[in-house]
Structures are given as C-alpha cells and as structure tokens.
Design a protein that fits this description.
Elements lengths: L2 E3 L3 E4 L9 E9 L6 E7 L4 E10 L4 E6 L5 E5 L8 E7 L4 E9 L9 E9 L19 E5 L22 E2 L4 E8 L5 E9 L2 H8 L2 E7 L2 E2 L6 E7 L2 E14 L2 E10 L3 E2 L4 E2 L2 E11 L1
Parallel strand pairs: 13-22
Antiparallel strand pairs: 1-4, 2-3, 3-10, 4-9, 5-8, 5-10, 6-7, 6-9, 7-12, 11-18, 14-18, 15-16, 15-19, 17-18, 19-22, 20-21
Length: about 290
C-alpha cells in the first residue's frame, strides 16, 4: 500500500493499471465541517505520477494540491480533468520520500460545494489523451504561419489552449509537460503564454528573472513577432506573450513554449525553482 494518511475515507485496493503502472485509490466525503483531507503517498526519485480527484455525488467541485515534505506547494489543479474534476497529470517528483496531496474543494474554506469523491494516484507516465480517434501520435509534419497580434484584437480569436484535451499543470519545479489537441485548419488561434503575480511590484521583479521562448515546428519564433503587454485579471497582475497562429497545413504541428527562470521566483503565492519550464503542444490539424 503506497497511499495512506490522515484523510477520512477508505483506501481501496487497486490492481495494476495499463502496462507496468499501478495505482492507489481512496474514497471519502468533503463536508462544510471537513473541507480538506490530507493523503500521504510514497515515491522514488524521478517517478512520474498522475493524481485525479473525481466527484462521485453531491455536486462537489474538486481541487487538488500537491505538497512536498517541507510543506512546499509543488502543483495544484481545479478543473484539469473536465466536468469540474481535478487532475495533475504526469508530474515527475524529484526526490525519494513521502509527498502529500490535499483533496479539497474550490475556494477551500470559503467554498460551498460538498459531496463524495474518488482520489486515484497512478504511478508511471500516462499517454496523452485524445479528443478523437487518431488524434494522438499525429506526426508533426505540418506548418503554421506565425504573426503578431494586438492586445485589443486577441478577443476575436479562440485561445490555443482551449483545444487541448488536458491543460498544463501549474508546477513550481522545472519540468517538461506535453499536451495534445486538434485545431481547425481554417481557424486562427491566439497563443498566449502568461505569467501572473500578486501585484505590479512583484510582477516587475519577476519579469527581470524570466525569459520566454516560443517555437513552431522546431523553429524559434522571432521575439519581435511576440506581442507583450500587461493587464489585471481579477486580483492578479499578468504579463502576456502572444502571437497569432493561422494558415495551418499538414496532418499535425508541434509547438513549444519555454519559461526560463534564471533564479528562484516568488509570485506572491509560492516560490518557483530556477530552470526551464517547457510546454509542448502536439496538435492534429483537421
């Protein structure tokens, strides 16, 4: 048994998943009086895991928070699995030891949803999901035209990330994440890489330590093509790095975005370790 801890619920024995993977499962209930459960699990250095929290009944809006042995938040997710369910997919953990997942609800203590949930931890890398049969493993033999886009016109186009089957997780240590999706070859999309912070002063300090690189089909995108601007999103101040993608050709296109942190960065909420945070897009063109 690799999953245990102080949560209230029943650990369900689970057999092997696909391939060489194995998984652990627990079922429990979130209430107004008990809105978070902490579950511990053991891993080896470099092991890849996927954590899923699924609402079973009652209308619960799950929220997952991954914490290391020093109480550092490594990643969190609200709706990454769709239908308000949460998922942290293919997270690589750097050190052998015990980690903790907080299974809670959106807005936590201030939240209002309750109900039963299933928490599943899968040990071993999972393949990218596909929206349609044949959408996975499409060769990146195509191309796409990259052009500048003004901040005022971005709302006219769908966001590139909206076509992904599973969104990227917000992680605080460098790693490579991959996601797949399908684009309409006749549609233009805004590709917007965003960094947000608690306030303007923090954002300004953060940006002094962050470099952004975009590439399409293995070719770097000219930094002069990338539109950069800042705005306020709710209570956050955000910096945008955006381009317009159009004129899709071929069966598939591969894109890559890299955030390079030259030093540790504190965005007002948590500390991000220095290094390269890489986001790879594998897009089928239809």
């Amino acid at each position: 048994q690799r999953l245990y801890g102080a949560g209230t619920g029943t650990v369900v024995p689970s057999g092997p998943a696909t391939g060489d993977e194995s998984s652990s499962e627990v079922q429990a209930q979130i209430t107004d009086d008990e809105f978070v459960h902490f579950w511990d699990f053991d891993v080896q250095a470099g092991e890849t895991i996927t954590i899923e929290m699924e609402e079973l009944n009652g209308g619960l809006d799950p929220l997952l928070i991954l914490i290391d042995a020093n109480n550092n938040v490594l990643a969190y997710d609200d709706d990454g699995a769709g239908d308000f369910n949460a998922q942290l997919r293919n997270i690589s953990l750097p050190e052998t030891g015990t980690y903790t997942v907080a299974a809670t609800r959106y807005e936590q203590a201030q939240g209002y949803t309750t109900g039963e949930y299933r928490l599943v931890i899968t040990y071993g890398a999972l393949p990218d999901p596909t929206a349609q049969p044949g959408a996975a493993n499409v060769p990146g033999d195509g191309s796409v035209q990259v052009s500048s886009v003004s901040a005022s016109s971005m709302s006219q186009y769908p966001a590139l990330d909206s076509v992904l089957n599973t969104g990227f997780a917000d992680v605080s240590r460098p790693q490579v994440q991959e996601a797949s999706g399908t684009v309409d070859r006749s549609q233009s999309y805004v590709w917007d890489l965003t960094w947000c912070a608690a306030n303007q002063e923090t954002l300004t300090t953060n940006l002094q330590l962050i470099d952004v690189r975009l590439s399409a089909g293995g070719q770097p995108i000219d930094p002069g093509t990338i539109t950069t601007f800042q705005d306020t999103s709710g209570q956050l101040v955000c910096a945008h790095h955006a381009v317009l993608l159009s004129g899709w050709s071929g069966q598939g296109v591969d894109l890559e975005a890299t955030l390079s942190l030259r030093d540790a960065v504190f965005d007002g909420f948590k500390v991000y370790s220095p290094g390269d945070y890489v986001y790879r897009y594998h897009l089928a063109v239809q």
